[in-house]
Amino acid sequence: MAKLKQNANSPSANLIAALRFVNLAQKKNGNAMQTHCNIANNCIIATDGIITAGHKILEDLTAKPKTLELIEALENCNEVAIAQFEDSISITSGKFNAFIPCLAEALPSSYPDYPCAEINNKLRDGFNTIEFLAQEKAKELIAGTMLLTAYSMFSTNKFLLLEYYHGINLPCNLVIPINFVYAIAETTKNLTKFGYGVKENGIINSITFWFEDESWIKTQLFQEQWPDVTKILNVPTNYISLYPGFYDAIEAVAPFTGKTESVYFKKDLLKSHKDDKQGASFKVEGLPDNMRYNYKFLKMIKPFTANVDFTSHESKVYFTNGENVRGCLMGMRI
Fold first, then answer.
1. Phi, psi of 26 (to 5 degrees)
2. What rounded mean pLDDT belongs to the chain?
3. Which CATH number characterizes residue 192's domain?
4. Fewest Cβ atoms nearer than 10 Å: which of 16, 87, 109, 290?
5. Over the stretch 20-40, which tens digit does the pLDDT of each residue have?
6. 248 and 326 fall within a common domain
7. Rounded to whole angstroms, how far apart are CA atoms 10 and 219?
8. Residue 3 has pLDDT above 50, yes or no
9. Last residue of some domain: 77, 101, 125?
10. CB 26 within 8 A of CB 35
11. What pLDDT does 130 receive?
Protein backbone atom coordinates (compact mmCIF):
# COMPACT_ATOMS: atom_id res chain seq x y z
CA MET A 1 0.00 0.00 0.00
CA ALA A 2 1.24 3.46 -0.79
CA LYS A 3 2.62 5.64 1.94
CA LEU A 4 0.39 8.67 2.43
CA LYS A 5 2.09 10.81 5.07
CA GLN A 6 5.29 10.71 7.10
CA ASN A 7 6.58 12.76 10.01
CA ALA A 8 10.16 12.26 11.23
CA ASN A 9 9.90 14.57 14.26
CA SER A 10 10.22 13.29 17.82
CA PRO A 11 6.94 11.99 19.27
CA SER A 12 4.72 14.79 20.40
CA ALA A 13 4.10 14.85 24.12
CA ASN A 14 0.82 16.50 23.15
CA LEU A 15 -0.12 13.52 20.96
CA ILE A 16 0.54 10.95 23.68
CA ALA A 17 -1.24 13.09 26.29
CA ALA A 18 -4.20 13.52 23.96
CA LEU A 19 -4.44 9.79 23.30
CA ARG A 20 -4.26 8.98 27.01
CA PHE A 21 -6.98 11.55 27.65
CA VAL A 22 -9.45 10.25 25.05
CA ASN A 23 -8.69 6.69 26.13
CA LEU A 24 -10.82 7.50 29.21
CA ALA A 25 -13.77 7.02 26.85
CA GLN A 26 -12.53 3.72 25.41
CA LYS A 27 -12.54 0.07 26.47
CA LYS A 28 -9.64 -2.37 26.29
CA ASN A 29 -12.00 -4.98 24.87
CA GLY A 30 -15.13 -3.95 23.05
CA ASN A 31 -16.57 -3.22 19.64
CA ALA A 32 -14.72 -1.12 17.06
CA MET A 33 -16.31 2.12 18.27
CA GLN A 34 -15.11 1.43 21.81
CA THR A 35 -11.51 0.58 20.89
CA HIS A 36 -10.73 2.96 18.00
CA CYS A 37 -10.49 6.76 18.01
CA ASN A 38 -11.10 9.21 15.19
CA ILE A 39 -8.16 11.49 14.27
CA ALA A 40 -8.96 14.34 11.89
CA ASN A 41 -8.63 18.11 11.61
CA ASN A 42 -5.92 18.24 14.32
CA CYS A 43 -8.23 16.64 16.87
CA ILE A 44 -8.77 13.20 18.42
CA ILE A 45 -12.26 12.09 19.44
CA ALA A 46 -13.12 8.76 21.08
CA THR A 47 -16.33 7.33 22.46
CA ASP A 48 -17.68 4.19 24.10
CA GLY A 49 -21.25 5.05 23.11
CA ILE A 50 -22.07 6.89 26.35
CA ILE A 51 -18.94 8.91 27.16
CA THR A 52 -17.04 10.88 24.53
CA ALA A 53 -13.70 12.67 24.91
CA GLY A 54 -11.93 15.10 22.60
CA HIS A 55 -8.46 16.66 22.53
CA LYS A 56 -6.63 18.92 20.07
CA ILE A 57 -3.30 17.75 18.57
CA LEU A 58 -0.57 19.31 16.42
CA GLU A 59 -0.15 16.35 14.05
CA ASP A 60 -1.81 16.42 10.63
CA LEU A 61 -3.26 12.91 10.54
CA THR A 62 -6.53 11.48 9.29
CA ALA A 63 -7.12 7.96 10.57
CA LYS A 64 -9.15 5.76 12.89
CA PRO A 65 -6.47 3.77 14.76
CA LYS A 66 -6.81 1.36 17.67
CA THR A 67 -6.32 3.78 20.55
CA LEU A 68 -4.53 1.68 23.14
CA GLU A 69 -2.14 0.11 20.61
CA LEU A 70 -1.16 3.55 19.31
CA ILE A 71 -0.47 4.74 22.86
CA GLU A 72 1.69 1.68 23.59
CA ALA A 73 3.63 2.11 20.35
CA LEU A 74 4.38 5.80 20.91
CA GLU A 75 5.46 5.17 24.50
CA ASN A 76 8.25 2.94 23.12
CA CYS A 77 9.70 5.78 21.03
CA ASN A 78 12.27 8.52 21.33
CA GLU A 79 12.77 9.84 17.79
CA VAL A 80 9.78 8.67 15.77
CA ALA A 81 8.64 8.40 12.18
CA ILE A 82 4.89 8.20 11.64
CA ALA A 83 3.77 6.83 8.29
CA GLN A 84 0.09 6.67 7.41
CA PHE A 85 -1.32 3.97 5.12
CA GLU A 86 -4.85 3.15 4.01
CA ASP A 87 -5.49 0.61 6.77
CA SER A 88 -2.75 1.30 9.34
CA ILE A 89 -0.32 3.75 10.90
CA SER A 90 3.34 2.78 11.06
CA ILE A 91 5.34 3.91 14.09
CA THR A 92 9.12 3.63 13.71
CA SER A 93 11.81 4.57 16.23
CA GLY A 94 15.34 3.17 15.84
CA LYS A 95 15.05 -0.62 15.74
CA PHE A 96 11.39 -0.51 16.82
CA ASN A 97 8.49 -0.63 14.36
CA ALA A 98 4.77 -1.18 14.91
CA PHE A 99 1.76 -1.15 12.60
CA ILE A 100 -1.41 0.11 14.25
CA PRO A 101 -4.60 -1.16 12.58
CA CYS A 102 -7.04 1.50 11.42
CA LEU A 103 -10.71 1.25 10.53
CA ALA A 104 -11.89 1.99 7.02
CA GLU A 105 -15.54 2.45 7.96
CA ALA A 106 -16.91 5.58 9.59
CA LEU A 107 -17.21 5.91 13.38
CA PRO A 108 -20.28 7.47 15.02
CA SER A 109 -19.91 11.23 15.27
CA SER A 110 -20.27 12.96 18.62
CA TYR A 111 -19.34 16.55 19.33
CA PRO A 112 -19.15 18.54 22.57
CA ASP A 113 -21.96 20.64 23.95
CA TYR A 114 -21.24 24.33 23.56
CA PRO A 115 -19.89 25.85 26.80
CA CYS A 116 -22.40 28.10 28.50
CA ALA A 117 -21.21 28.41 32.12
CA GLU A 118 -18.04 28.49 34.16
CA ILE A 119 -17.15 25.60 36.46
CA ASN A 120 -14.14 24.68 38.58
CA ASN A 121 -12.35 21.75 40.18
CA LYS A 122 -14.87 21.53 43.03
CA LEU A 123 -16.91 19.26 40.77
CA ARG A 124 -14.02 16.83 40.42
CA ASP A 125 -13.30 17.12 44.15
CA GLY A 126 -16.91 16.18 44.83
CA PHE A 127 -16.79 13.20 42.49
CA ASN A 128 -13.59 11.98 44.14
CA THR A 129 -15.12 12.39 47.60
CA ILE A 130 -18.45 10.57 47.26
CA GLU A 131 -18.24 8.43 44.10
CA PHE A 132 -17.34 5.31 46.11
CA LEU A 133 -20.99 4.65 46.97
CA ALA A 134 -22.19 4.18 43.38
CA GLN A 135 -21.43 0.90 41.58
CA GLU A 136 -21.32 0.51 37.80
CA LYS A 137 -23.20 -2.81 37.82
CA ALA A 138 -25.82 -1.83 40.38
CA LYS A 139 -29.30 -3.15 39.58
CA GLU A 140 -31.10 0.08 40.51
CA LEU A 141 -30.56 3.47 38.89
CA ILE A 142 -29.84 5.43 42.06
CA ALA A 143 -27.13 2.98 43.15
CA GLY A 144 -25.32 3.04 39.79
CA THR A 145 -25.38 6.77 39.01
CA MET A 146 -24.77 10.12 40.68
CA LEU A 147 -27.14 13.06 40.82
CA LEU A 148 -25.69 16.44 39.86
CA THR A 149 -27.79 19.48 40.58
CA ALA A 150 -27.49 23.17 41.32
CA TYR A 151 -24.90 23.65 44.08
CA SER A 152 -24.76 19.97 45.15
CA MET A 153 -24.19 16.38 44.05
CA PHE A 154 -25.47 13.15 45.59
CA SER A 155 -24.39 9.53 45.77
CA THR A 156 -26.03 6.53 47.46
CA ASN A 157 -25.92 2.77 47.90
CA LYS A 158 -29.58 2.79 49.10
CA PHE A 159 -28.55 2.50 52.76
CA LEU A 160 -26.19 5.46 52.90
CA LEU A 161 -26.78 8.85 51.25
CA LEU A 162 -24.08 11.50 50.78
CA GLU A 163 -24.37 15.09 49.59
CA TYR A 164 -21.36 17.15 48.51
CA TYR A 165 -21.85 20.92 48.23
CA HIS A 166 -19.90 22.17 45.18
CA GLY A 167 -21.43 25.66 45.12
CA ILE A 168 -21.88 26.01 41.33
CA ASN A 169 -25.20 27.05 39.80
CA LEU A 170 -25.91 24.20 37.36
CA PRO A 171 -29.11 22.77 35.87
CA CYS A 172 -31.01 20.54 38.29
CA ASN A 173 -31.50 16.78 38.36
CA LEU A 174 -28.79 15.60 35.98
CA VAL A 175 -28.51 11.81 36.38
CA ILE A 176 -24.92 11.00 35.47
CA PRO A 177 -23.45 7.60 34.50
CA ILE A 178 -20.85 6.54 37.02
CA ASN A 179 -18.31 5.95 34.22
CA PHE A 180 -18.38 9.67 33.43
CA VAL A 181 -17.69 10.37 37.09
CA TYR A 182 -14.73 7.95 37.00
CA ALA A 183 -13.37 9.61 33.85
CA ILE A 184 -13.54 13.13 35.32
CA ALA A 185 -12.04 11.91 38.59
CA GLU A 186 -8.99 10.54 36.71
CA THR A 187 -8.15 13.89 35.12
CA THR A 188 -5.71 16.39 36.58
CA LYS A 189 -6.29 19.40 34.32
CA ASN A 190 -8.34 22.35 35.56
CA LEU A 191 -12.05 22.30 34.78
CA THR A 192 -13.21 25.60 33.27
CA LYS A 193 -16.55 25.38 31.45
CA PHE A 194 -19.81 23.47 31.27
CA GLY A 195 -22.21 22.85 28.41
CA TYR A 196 -25.37 20.85 27.88
CA GLY A 197 -27.51 19.54 25.04
CA VAL A 198 -31.29 19.32 24.90
CA LYS A 199 -33.85 17.28 23.02
CA GLU A 200 -36.59 18.91 20.98
CA ASN A 201 -38.85 18.72 24.04
CA GLY A 202 -36.34 20.77 26.02
CA ILE A 203 -35.11 17.92 28.22
CA ILE A 204 -31.37 17.93 28.87
CA ASN A 205 -29.87 14.74 27.45
CA SER A 206 -26.11 15.40 27.57
CA ILE A 207 -23.51 17.47 29.39
CA THR A 208 -19.90 18.38 28.60
CA PHE A 209 -17.11 19.34 30.96
CA TRP A 210 -14.41 21.52 29.36
CA PHE A 211 -10.81 21.82 30.56
CA GLU A 212 -8.29 24.64 30.47
CA ASP A 213 -6.63 23.38 27.25
CA GLU A 214 -10.03 23.09 25.48
CA SER A 215 -10.13 19.32 25.77
CA TRP A 216 -13.50 17.98 26.85
CA ILE A 217 -15.46 14.99 28.12
CA LYS A 218 -19.12 14.56 27.28
CA THR A 219 -21.72 12.10 28.54
CA GLN A 220 -25.26 11.12 27.71
CA LEU A 221 -27.61 11.40 30.69
CA PHE A 222 -30.16 8.96 32.06
CA GLN A 223 -33.67 10.25 31.54
CA GLU A 224 -35.10 8.27 34.45
CA GLN A 225 -35.03 10.50 37.53
CA TRP A 226 -33.90 9.99 41.11
CA PRO A 227 -36.49 10.32 43.87
CA ASP A 228 -36.33 13.57 45.84
CA VAL A 229 -33.50 12.68 48.22
CA THR A 230 -33.37 16.21 49.64
CA LYS A 231 -36.43 15.25 51.71
CA ILE A 232 -34.23 12.77 53.57
CA LEU A 233 -31.55 15.33 54.39
CA ASN A 234 -33.57 18.51 54.90
CA VAL A 235 -34.89 17.62 58.34
CA PRO A 236 -34.28 19.14 61.78
CA THR A 237 -31.07 17.88 63.34
CA ASN A 238 -29.32 18.29 66.64
CA TYR A 239 -25.66 17.79 65.86
CA ILE A 240 -23.05 17.09 68.52
CA SER A 241 -19.36 16.29 68.26
CA LEU A 242 -18.65 12.62 67.59
CA TYR A 243 -18.33 10.58 70.76
CA PRO A 244 -14.64 10.34 71.80
CA GLY A 245 -13.23 6.90 71.02
CA PHE A 246 -16.14 5.93 68.77
CA TYR A 247 -14.02 4.56 65.93
CA ASP A 248 -11.58 2.93 68.32
CA ALA A 249 -14.62 1.03 69.58
CA ILE A 250 -15.68 0.09 66.04
CA GLU A 251 -12.23 -1.34 65.27
CA ALA A 252 -12.15 -3.24 68.56
CA VAL A 253 -15.52 -4.99 68.32
CA ALA A 254 -15.85 -5.44 64.52
CA PRO A 255 -13.87 -8.73 64.41
CA PHE A 256 -16.43 -10.27 66.81
CA THR A 257 -19.55 -9.43 64.78
CA GLY A 258 -19.41 -12.46 62.48
CA LYS A 259 -21.65 -12.63 59.43
CA THR A 260 -24.07 -10.02 60.78
CA GLU A 261 -21.47 -7.22 60.46
CA SER A 262 -23.60 -5.40 63.05
CA VAL A 263 -22.69 -3.31 66.04
CA TYR A 264 -25.19 -2.55 68.80
CA PHE A 265 -25.48 0.60 70.87
CA LYS A 266 -26.25 0.19 74.53
CA LYS A 267 -26.02 3.28 76.73
CA ASP A 268 -22.32 4.22 76.93
CA LEU A 269 -21.36 0.91 75.32
CA LEU A 270 -20.68 -0.37 71.79
CA LYS A 271 -21.29 -4.13 71.42
CA SER A 272 -20.83 -6.84 68.80
CA HIS A 273 -23.97 -8.70 69.96
CA LYS A 274 -27.31 -7.86 71.49
CA ASP A 275 -26.77 -10.47 74.19
CA ASP A 276 -24.57 -9.16 77.02
CA LYS A 277 -22.87 -12.55 77.36
CA GLN A 278 -21.72 -12.80 73.73
CA GLY A 279 -18.96 -11.19 71.71
CA ALA A 280 -17.12 -8.04 72.68
CA SER A 281 -17.92 -4.57 73.94
CA PHE A 282 -16.14 -1.23 74.23
CA LYS A 283 -17.08 1.70 76.46
CA VAL A 284 -18.02 4.91 74.66
CA GLU A 285 -19.17 7.75 76.90
CA GLY A 286 -22.42 9.35 75.74
CA LEU A 287 -23.39 6.64 73.26
CA PRO A 288 -27.19 6.41 73.01
CA ASP A 289 -29.20 3.27 73.67
CA ASN A 290 -31.01 0.65 71.57
CA MET A 291 -29.51 1.08 68.09
CA ARG A 292 -27.97 -1.24 65.50
CA TYR A 293 -25.79 -0.36 62.49
CA ASN A 294 -23.68 -2.12 59.89
CA TYR A 295 -20.15 -1.40 61.05
CA LYS A 296 -18.80 -1.31 57.47
CA PHE A 297 -21.16 1.55 56.65
CA LEU A 298 -20.14 3.35 59.84
CA LYS A 299 -16.52 3.07 58.74
CA MET A 300 -17.42 4.50 55.33
CA ILE A 301 -18.72 7.71 56.88
CA LYS A 302 -15.74 8.20 59.20
CA PRO A 303 -14.26 11.12 57.16
CA PHE A 304 -17.57 12.99 57.41
CA THR A 305 -18.48 12.60 61.07
CA ALA A 306 -17.10 15.71 62.74
CA ASN A 307 -20.67 16.21 63.94
CA VAL A 308 -23.37 13.55 64.32
CA ASP A 309 -26.99 13.14 65.34
CA PHE A 310 -27.95 9.60 66.36
CA THR A 311 -31.02 10.55 68.35
CA SER A 312 -33.34 12.98 66.52
CA HIS A 313 -34.67 10.44 64.02
CA GLU A 314 -35.32 6.80 64.80
CA SER A 315 -33.03 4.26 63.11
CA LYS A 316 -31.03 6.94 61.30
CA VAL A 317 -27.79 8.76 61.93
CA TYR A 318 -27.23 12.18 60.39
CA PHE A 319 -23.71 13.51 60.04
CA THR A 320 -21.58 16.27 58.53
CA ASN A 321 -17.91 17.09 58.16
CA GLY A 322 -18.76 20.69 59.05
CA GLU A 323 -17.74 21.94 55.61
CA ASN A 324 -19.15 20.53 52.38
CA VAL A 325 -20.43 17.00 53.06
CA ARG A 326 -23.50 15.81 54.91
CA GLY A 327 -25.36 12.52 54.87
CA CYS A 328 -27.69 10.00 56.38
CA LEU A 329 -27.16 6.34 57.25
CA MET A 330 -30.03 3.94 57.83
CA GLY A 331 -29.91 1.77 60.91
CA MET A 332 -31.00 -1.86 61.22
CA ARG A 333 -33.82 -3.54 63.10
CA ILE A 334 -32.91 -4.96 66.48
1. -125, 170
2. 92
3. 3.10.150.10
4. 109
5. 999 999 998 889 999 999 999
6. yes
7. 34
8. no
9. 101
10. yes
11. 97
